[in-house]
Design a protein that fits this description.
The structure holds 2 protein chains of 2 kinds. Chain A is mainly alpha-helical. Chain A is built from 3 helices and no strands. Chain B is elongated. The chains are: A mainly alpha, B mainly alpha.
């Protein structure tokens, strides 16, 4: 069951990666990057269940708390430049 | 039973991720892509977290904290991106319709420049007055 769920999640990640490569504007790429980050958080939660180690949850927590900062900084860059 | 519920929730979350990525691929313009990339990933993360709580009830505090962070930061980042790309005029599907945010910003900008011109005029008047005073003192 874990294998099926992880495979579907990886498939969704690679579909988002197509938008990341293709995206016509910078904002498309940033949105795809953001979604891939959120998917990575969920993937870490599922991996912590699979390996029965709660230490992976800490990594997911930090990624969820800090990951949005990159997107916010990109928004500032789109708006005003460096 | 709890195991079944947990797997059901995790599966629903992953399917929601799949729907989100298909939406990111197929939506016609940037703003609808932001719509697909902001809402369903949040729901999917919450579903995965709920399923994990069903499977491992001892990890509940950490998982609830994670759910809180995702719920707080996800809409924020997509809103920042949408606002920034509207400001740099990324085109959207109905670009020829009325754009009220743009109209509001233009109105605000015009008011600010008018206020600045009034200030500049006042300053020049004051400078002229002080110059006249100086010349009178010299005489």
């Amino acid at each position: 069951m874990f294998e099926i769920v992880t495979l579907i999640l990886l498939l969704a990640m690679s579909l988002t990666m197509i938008r990341f490569v293709k995206g016509p504007t910078l904002s498309d790429r940033v949105i795809a990057f953001d979604v891939i980050g959120i998917m990575a958080v969920s993937l870490l939660v599922i991996l912590s269940l699979y390996f029965q180690r709660s230490i992976y949850l800490d990594i997911a927590l930090v990624l969820g708390a800090i990951g949005f900062l990159g997107t916010t900084v990109f928004g500032r860059y789109i708006e005003k430049g460096i | 039973m709890l195991t079944f519920l947990g797997f059901l929730f995790i599966f629903a979350g992953v399917v929601s991720f799949m729907i989100s990525s298909i939406g990111l691929l197929r939506m016609p313009d940037l703003y609808s892509r932001i719509h697909a990339g902001a809402k369903s990933p949040t729901l999917a993360t919450l579903l995965v977290v709920i399923g994990t709580i069903f499977l491992e009830p001892a990890w509940a505090p950490k998982l609830l904290l994670l759910a809180f962070f995702v719920l707080a930061t996800n809409p924020l980042s997509s809103s920042v991106i949408a606002r920034a790309s509207h400001k740099v005029d990324v085109p959207h599907l109905n670009s020829d319709h009325v754009d009220e945010l743009k109209l509001y910003e233009e109105k605000k900008l015009a008011e600010e420049t008018a206020a600045r011109e009034v200030l500049l005029e006042q300053e020049t008047v004051e400078e002229k007055a002080t110059e006249e005073e100086n010349t009178e003192e010299k005489k």
